[in-house]
Amino acid sequence: MFQKVIGQKSGETTTSTPSSAPSPTNAATSAPAAAYPSSLQPTAAVRPTSSAPRNVLSTDVEVKGTLKFTNDLIVDGRIEGEIQSDGNLTIGENARIKAEIRTATVTVHGKVHGNITANDRVDLKAGAEVVGDIKSKILTMEPGAIFVGKSTIGTPTTAPAGNAPAKDKA
């Protein structure tokens, strides 16, 4: 009745009965996790709860325009335009992004040409290439990552002295 297609060698098929099929909540979270290596999975600090669905755009997907999502998105294809979310974005090794990115967290393994604004953190992994500005509370870079642009990291506790209003002495 069901046919397993992820992680099989060509010509190999497996069928199962409904009693051995995974539950709908497990299927939504385990299928994308099985399709990508652990290096593309969100870090433990930003890992969603087991009920949060994970969205996947594979290498054969190309998007032009505005992309909005909730929870997690793993991209290994091409996106041109704008990406908006309060969730976690993982950009795979094969991904080619030309977009303005505004999300909670971003993990980059591939190439991004555009500005990244993250509410929490941006992680640039060893094969990452980012050409654009980054604004985030936390920025991490592994050796081998390429970053060309400006970065604004952290949250200032007070306004710089040059921006304070001048006081008149009369």
**Uncertain stretches of 5 or more adjacent residues:** 1-5, 8-35
Mean pLDDT: 77
Q: How is the quaternary structure best described?
A: single chain
Distance between the termini: 87 Å
Mind summarizing the main beta sheet? 13 strands, parallel
How would the blueprint of this fold be written?
Elements (H helix, E strand, L loop, with lengths): L1 E2 L11 E2 L7 H12 L18 E4 L4 E8 L2 E4 L2 E8 L2 E4 L4 E13 L2 E3 L2 E9 L4 E3 L2 E3 L1 E4 L4 E3 L2 E3 L17
Parallel strand pairs: 3-5, 4-6, 5-7, 6-8, 7-8, 8-9, 8-10, 9-11, 10-12, 10-13, 11-14, 12-15
Antiparallel strand pairs: 1-2
Could you describe the 3D structure shown?
The model is unreliable at 1-5 and 8-35 (pLDDT under 50). The strands form two sheets. Strands 3, 4, 5, 6, 7, 8, 9, 10, 11, 12, 13, 14 and 15 form a 13-stranded parallel β-sheet that branches. A two-stranded antiparallel sheet has the order 1-2. It has a domain at 52-155. It is built from one helix and 15 strands, in the order ββαβββββββββββββ. Helix content is 7%, strand content 43%.
